[in-house]
Amino acid sequence: MIHVNAFSEVARRVNRSMHGDNESYYKVPNNREEAAQYLLLYELSLPFGLDLNNQINVDKSESRVTITLQNISSAEMIAFSKRAEKWLQDNTPKPMHTIGVSPTLMFSKLGFRQADSMLKGNIIALILISLVLMFALRNFKLGLLSIIPNVTPVFIGFGFWAMYKAQINTGMVIVFGMTLGIIVDDTVHFMSKFLRARRELGYDAKQAVIYAFETVGKALVTTTIVLLAGFAVLSTSSFALNSYMARITVIIILSALIIDFILLPSLLILISKKDKVISETPVKELEPQMQLDK
Q1: Is the entire prediction scored with pTM above 0.70?
Q2: DSSP 8-state class, residue 95
Q3: Regions of the chain short of the pLDDT cut 70
Q4: Would you list the domain boundaries of the chain?
Q5: In the chain, N or C terminus with fewer CB closer than 10 Å?
């Protein structure tokens, strides 16, 4: 806490001044009529354009207490507000009970509410994406497997951010939902080429992985570089909401590419060991035989 400003401070100073600057009168007047007269005198002495409307409401029934704090996290801000409200409830009459308000407190609560909503929404999105992939790829195992490369980059991104900054603002809450489409796109491209090599070309798991690298590897690298360049420029912004969001997005997108090139192929080979290859002989080797039959 840096500073506290309330009208009671004005009332104490006026009361002291009206009694010859006697320090024993540095307190709020005990008499309501006397306090009202001092308030009227003080308001009449203020220059034109200055009044007490920022501290007292129009009908003089409520006053504001302004507390200036150091830079603290959203959780600490919410905890401080709850302690202040609890103190009012325990030490003041019921008409004085109120809640704390400020833009900082508003954004702190908004961030937690957004995080909770985004977490629930992203979990539902991942489940739906997995179900769609099961039907699109016609493979139950790959549908479940897609959850790992889709979620891991986000964990890595926020893990690195916890070591680097350990602070999440409102803009960073939307990162998971924003990057999920990019991550899923990379995973779907790699898996679809892998399955094509397995089903249509008759390759084994290792050959199918190589085929996927040859067909979509360059495209995934290119799109990732373009996205990284764009978000890297945005990360230089002096506006913290934009810069923090861009920095963690860069980490997540880069992590997604690395996972799709290292972890995903290993998982595909691992789960394909027990699967039977549809055709042991590649299509290219069958073409001469088909021609001979004709």
Answers
A1: no
A2: G
A3: 1, 49, 166-171, 274-294
A4: 1-68, 127-286
A5: C
